[in-house]
Design a protein that fits this description.
alpha/beta; Signal recognition particle alu RNA binding heterodimer, srp9/1; Rossmann fold; Helicase, Ruva Protein, domain 3; 4 domains; 22 helices; binds adenosine-5'-diphosphate; binds magnesium ion; binds zinc ion
Length: 605
C-alpha cells in the first residue's frame, strides 16, 4: 500500500511538471499587444510595419522597432484586399513583407489534442505500471515451481575453479578424473561400452572443500554447472520441491553435457518415513522426485549429478543404490602436507612477510579444515591491517590460530590479581601434568589471557594426525584435564568454578571409555545405551538404555574408578613438581603467555 502511494505521488509530480512545461511554452513570455485593424492601417501608412505573418485569421505584426503586435481579421478575406479597402496604396503594400502560414498542425496537436489526451495517457500509463507491479508479485507465485539453481558457465573466467584451486584430497580428485574425462569426450566411453556413473556423492566434514571440488570438476571439464542447495527445494507448500526438481533437470537437459550439483543433500535426502514435525510430506515428495529424475535420464547422456553431504549416515538408502548416487568420493580433513598446500593457495593474494613459515603454521593447525585455514589467513590479514603493518607476519598468523580455536581475546575481561594468581596456577597445573605424561597431546601454548569463555587456556595438540586412539592416551588426557583442578587445590586448598569445564570433559571422556569404546575390563567389549537422534534436528537427543539397573551402577563405578586413577596420577606428578609448578605460574603472571619452546626450556632446566 505504501508503495502504491509512492508511485501515485511520483506520477502526480511528473504530471505537474509536464503541465507546467506546456503552460510555459503555450503562452509566450511577451504577449504581443492587440491592436485594431484601423490602427494597423495607420501604422502601415506611417511606414512603421516591417512584416505581417498571416495565420488563418490572425495577423502577427512585427514593427520596424521590433515590437510585436497582434490583430484579427475576418475569415476568408485576403489581407491585401482588406488593406486595399482601407485605402492602403500598393506602394505601401509592396514595402511590406507579408507571409502567409497555414495553421500549424503541431500547434493544434499541442494545444488541442494533447491537453485532452495527456491525462488520459497518464492514467493508462499509471494503471499499466500498477498492473505490471502486481504481475511481478503475482508471477512469483507462478514461478514457485522453478528451481532456483544458479548456473555457472564455463566461459565465466571469474568464477572458474579447477583442480589446481583444490589442495590435497588426492584420492577424491583421482576418482573424479573419470567424470571429467567422460564429460570432455563421452564418445570414448560409449564406444567402450562403459557406463559412467550418473550420480557422484561427495562426503566430508564441513569445510573440507566439497562444494569447491564439485565446481572444480565442472571447471576442468568445461561444462555448465547447476548449483542448488538441498534446502532450496523445500518450501511451505507440498509439491513445490518436486516441481523444482523437475524444472532443474529440464533445464539441465537443455544444456548437455553439464553437471547438476545438489549441495547439502541431507536436507532433502534423509531417510523417508521418519519425519517428525510437519514438513516431511513435502520432503519425501521432493526426494521421490529426485529418485525419479535420477532413474529417468539415460546413462551416458552427458548429465552427471553430483551431491554433497556431511551426514551420509542419515541419507535414504534408496539414494545410494546402484544407478543413483553409487559413486562415493570421500574428502578427508587435510593432513599436515595438504594444510601447507591449502595455506599456500589462500595466501596467494596476501603479501606475506619473509618470516612466515607456512610449514610451521600447518604443524600447529591439526584438525583444521580447508575453510578453517582460509578463515585463519583472513583473520591474520585483518589483524595485520589493525597493527598498521604492510605485510602479514608470522606472529599475526600464530595469533589468529588462537583466535580461530578459542575465540577472540577478551581484553575487557580484567581479572583481579588474586584471580590471575589462581588462573596461573590452574593452567600451570595442566601444563606440568601434560609434560610428565608420555602419551597425551603435548603443550603448544599456556596463557592466562581470557579468550571466549575461558579465563586462561592451555593449548595442546597432537604431534601428528591421529585416527585411532588408545586407552593410555585417554587416561593421560583425563589426567591433564584434572591437572588444573588439583593444582588449585594443592596451592590454595580450595577450588574455583574455573575448573567446571575441565570436569565436564573428564566425565564425558571417561564415560565414553566405558560405554562406547569397551575399554573397561569389568564391563567388557560392548556398548551401552543406544543413541537415538531425532531426525529433524539431526542431533542426538535421547539415549535409550539397553542395559539393566545393575549395569548402570557398574558403569558409574567404572567411570569413578577411571577418574580416581587419573586423579591420583596427576596429583602425584604435581606434588613431585611443586617448584616447577610455582616457577611456571610465576612466569605466566609476568608474561601472560608461554610458547611451546619456552615451556620446554623451563621444564628441562
Ligand atoms: P564444504 O562444501 O565441504 O563445506 P567448501 O567447499 O564450501 O566446503 O569450502 C569452503 C572454503 O574452504 C572454500 O571456498 C575454499 O576456499 C576452502 N577450502 C576448503 N578445502 C580446500 C582445499 N582442499 N583446497 C583449497 N581450499 C579449500
Ligand atoms: Mg558446501
Ligand atoms: Zn582448566
Amino acid at each position: 500500500m505504501k508503495n502504491l502511494l509512492k508511485n501515485f505521488l511520483i506520477f502526480l509530480i511528473i504530471f505537474l511538471v509536464i503541465a507546467g512545461v506546456f503552460s510555459l511554452t503555450s503562452s509566450d513570455n511577451k504577449k504581443p499587444q492587440e491592436i485594431s485593424i484601423s490602427q494597423l492601417v495607420q501604422e502601415i501608412q506611417e511606414d512603421k510595419v516591417k512584416e505581417i505573418v498571416v495565420t488563418d485569421n490572425s495577423l502577427n505584426i512585427l514593427l520596424v522597432n521590433q515590437e510585436k503586435q497582434l490583430t484579427l481579421k475576418e475569415d476568408n478575406q485576403p489581407l491585401t484586399e482588406l488593406l486595399a479597402n482601407y485605402g492602403v496604396g500598393s506602394d505601401k503594400l509592396s514595402k511590406l513583407s507579408i507571409k502567409v502560414k497555414t495553421a500549424n498542425n503541431r500547434n493544434v496537436f499541442l494545444t488541442v489534442i494533447l491537453p485532452i489526451l495527456l491525462p488520459f495517457l497518464l492514467l493508462v500509463g499509471f494503471f499499466y505500471y500498477l498492473s505490471n507491479q502486481m504481475k511481478g508479485s503475482g508471477m512469483q507465485a507462478f514461478k514457485f515451481g522453478e528451481s532456483k539453481a544458479r548456473q555457472v558457465n564455463p566461459k565465466d573466467k571469474r568464477t572458474k575453479v579447477t583442480f589446481q584451486n583444490v589442495a590435497g584430497v588426492h584420492e577424491a580428485k583421482e576418482a573424479l578424473q573419470d567424470v571429467v574425462k567422460f564429460l570432455k569426450s563421452p564418445k570414448n566411453f560409449i564406444n567402450m561400452g562403459a557406463k559412467i556413473p550418473k550420480g557422484v556423492l561427495l562426503i566430508g566434514m564441513p569445510g573440507t572443500g566439497k562444494t569447491l571440488l564439485a565446481r572444480a570438476v565442472a571447471g576442468e571439464a568445461n561444462v555448465p554447472f547447476f548449483h542448488i542447495s538441498g534446502s532450496e527445494f523445500v518450501e511451505m507448500f507440498v509439491g513445490v520441491g518436486a516441481s523444482r526438481v523437475r524444472d532443474l533437470f529440464r533445464r539441465a537437459q537443455k544444456n548437455l553435457p553439464c553437471i547438476i550439483f545438489i549441495d547439502e543433500l541431507d536436507a532433502v535426502g534423509r531417510v523417508r518415513g521418519s519425519g517428525v514435525g510437519g514438513s516431511h510430506d513435502e520432503r519425501e515428495q521432493t526426494l521421490n522426485q529426485i529418485l525419479v529424475e535420477l532413474d529417468g535420464f539415460e546413462p551416458n547422456s552427458g548429465l552427471v549429478v553430483m551431491a554433497a553431504t556431511n551426514r551420509p549416515d542419515i541419507l535414504d538408502p534408496a539414494l545410494l543404490r546402484p544407478g543413483r548416487f553409487d559413486r562415493k568420493v570421500i574428502l578427508d580433513i587435510p593432513d599436515i602436507k595438504d594444510r601447507e598446500f591449502i595455506l599456500k593457495i589462500h595466501s596467494a593474494g596476501k603479501p606475506l612477510a619473509s618470516n612466515v613459515n607456512l610449514h610451521q603454521i600447518a604443524e600447529r593447525t591439526p584438525g583444521f579444515s580447508g575453510a578453517d585455514l582460509e578463515n585463519l589467513l583472513n583473520e591474520a590479514a585483518i589483524l595485520t591491517v589493525k597493527n598498521n603493518k604492510k605485510k602479514v607476519g608470522h606472529e599475526e598468523i600464530l595469533e589468529s590460530i588462537d583466535k580461530v580455536l578459542l575465540g577472540p581475546e577478551r581484553k575487557s575481561h580484567i581479572l583481579s590479581d588474586k584471580e590471575k594468581n589462581i588462573v596461573a596456577f590452574h593452567e600451570a597445573g595442566h601444563a606440568i601434568v601434560s609434560w610428565n605424561l608420555p602419551s597425551c597431546d603435548p603443550v603448544h601454548k599456556v596463557s592466562i589471557i581470557s579468550r571466549g569463555q575461558a579465563a586462561g587456556y592451555t593449548l595442546r595438540m597432537p604431534e601428528e594426525e591421529k585416527y585411532l586412539r588408545s586407552k593410555p592416551e585417554f587416561l593421560d588426557n583425563i589426567a591433564v584435564y584434572l591437572g588444573g583442578y588439583i593444582s588449585e587445590k594443592l596451592t590454595f586448598k580450595e577450588v574455583t568454578t574455573g575448573a567446571s569445564n575441565d570436569l565436564r570433559q573428564v566425565t564425558h571422556l571417561s564415560r565414553k571409555l566405558v560405554t562406547e569404546f569397551g575399554m573397561s575390563d569389568i564391563l567388557g567389549p560392548r556398548t551401552f545405551g543406544e543413541k537415538e537422534e531425532l531426525i529433524f534436528l539431526g542431533r542426538e537427543i535421547s539415549e535409550r538404555r539397553d542395559y539393566s539397573e545393575k549395569i548402570a551402577q557398574t558403569i558409574d563405578e567404572e567411570v569413578s574408578k577411571i577418574i580416581n586413577l587419573c586423579y591420583n596420577r596427576a596429583q602425584e606428578i604435581l606434588e613431585k613438581n611443586k617448584e616447577k609448578l610455582e616457577e611456571v605460574a610465576k612466569i605466566l603472571l609476568k608474561k601472560e603467555t608461554i610458547e611451546k619452546e619456552e615451556f620446554a626450556k623451563i621444564m628441562k632446566n
